[in-house]
Amino acid sequence: MIELNIEKLAFGGRGIGYDNGKAVFVPYTMPGDRVACKVVREKKRYCEAEPVELLQPAPQRQQPRCSVFADCGGCQWQHLPYPLQLEWKEQLFRDALVRQHDLDEGLFDPIVSSPNEWHYRCRAQIKCRKVGDRFVAGFYRAGSHYVVDIDHCPLLALEINSVFTRIKSHLANFDRVERISQIDLSVDDSGQVCAIIHYLETPLEPLWKWMQPLVEELNLALFVQQGSKQSLTALTSGPEPFIRPLRGDDMRLHYPPGGFVQVNLEQNRNLVDDVCREVSPDSRILDLFCGIGNFSLPLARTARRVVGIEDYALAIDAAIENGQRNGLDNSSFVATAAERGLQEQWQNEDFEVVLLDPPRTGACEVARQLVDLRPARIIYISCDPMTLARDLKPLLNGGYRPLKFRAYDMFPQTGHIESLTLLERIY
């Protein structure tokens, strides 16, 4: 057991203290805390520890809203007041990039705070287990597959919480509940809640018979998944869910049940609005990792042409339909990997702007290709500052300079950071 004064926060959300000069990472702590902790992993240059006792709380520490905070792995920062969360995210984002690159700190805009710090998540994957006679449903404990049982979550949209409470209670007495491994819940911009039950059994009739009264009572869109996303079976009929990507605009982007949309719809509108402002009218734009057209189709309102690339075929089908629904005949979409699509599309035409919104793993190969293809502008949307810093290296060494960096708090109460980086070619 060691005692530490927590001095700062690390990327990902853990606190850092020092024991005989060696950094010790401790989750669920904050600068100003004094904690007793147990070292659980020792490396040559640092240690990882678990908090055992809070000896002296930081003056700014607040009471977490959630009763299972620090047990459930969904949040890291409920004990930090929201303005302090924003300060640390802004600093951690800036430090991650400045540490690896010689950047002028004046390039960093102030962080964009989330319109809602609670109840902002429009989707969740609820893990399910039968433990003895109990039906347990919730989220994984950090670093494990132990399911922490919950009845509600202060991050989930109120509509999702309401439906989750009813579904969990209703399924608890279902005689095949042990065959349910996960429930995906989402709510769209109309308030319609969709549930996807991962059910490891056939036939589906017993599950449907059990769920039908609740589905009718809650006006719930219900699907069953028995393997991959392609195995979805609709147990109800109704309109496809949709989001409105632009503030003050009735553009609707429909997406397949279980399809990817940003978890924070209000903050997504801020991000899409900002991206549209960074692109000159009449540009030709290539949108990599385009999904259902979250950026492509708003950009197509003023662009000469937009081509979207995405390797998930169902998302591309949705993007094509969304373009048609919104009357945007200057948009087209191709289902292929970003690296391949980039090369193929460039053989057909040049693009002034390339936008990329890769997964957390980043897009290092795409970055290297862009140096050779030399678009005038690059807009990089990132959900991981560390992979962004890595991917910037070939671009900054290959003729591009940054015009701005802007962090967005897409995920309040967590250590995760979304960002927009704007680059222009100088040679």
The biggest beta sheet reads:
7 strands, mixed
- Reported CATH architecture of the largest domain: 3-Layer(aba) Sandwich
CATH superfamily of the largest domain: Vaccinia Virus protein VP39
- Tally of contiguous helical segments: 9
The N- to C-terminal Cα distance equals 56 Å
| Form type | globular
Tell me the Rg in angstroms.
23 Å
Number of strands: 22
Helicity, as a percent range: 25-40%
User: Within the CATH hierarchy, at the fold level, what is the topology of the largest domain?
Assistant: Rossmann fold
Average pLDDT confidence is: 97
pLDDT < 50 runs, ≥5 residues: none
- Largest beta sheet: what is the strand line-up? 9-8-7-10-11-12-13
CATH class of the largest domain: Alpha Beta
| Alpha-beta content class | alpha/beta
The fraction of residues assigned to DSSP E strands is 25-35%
**Into how many domains do the coordinates divide?**
3
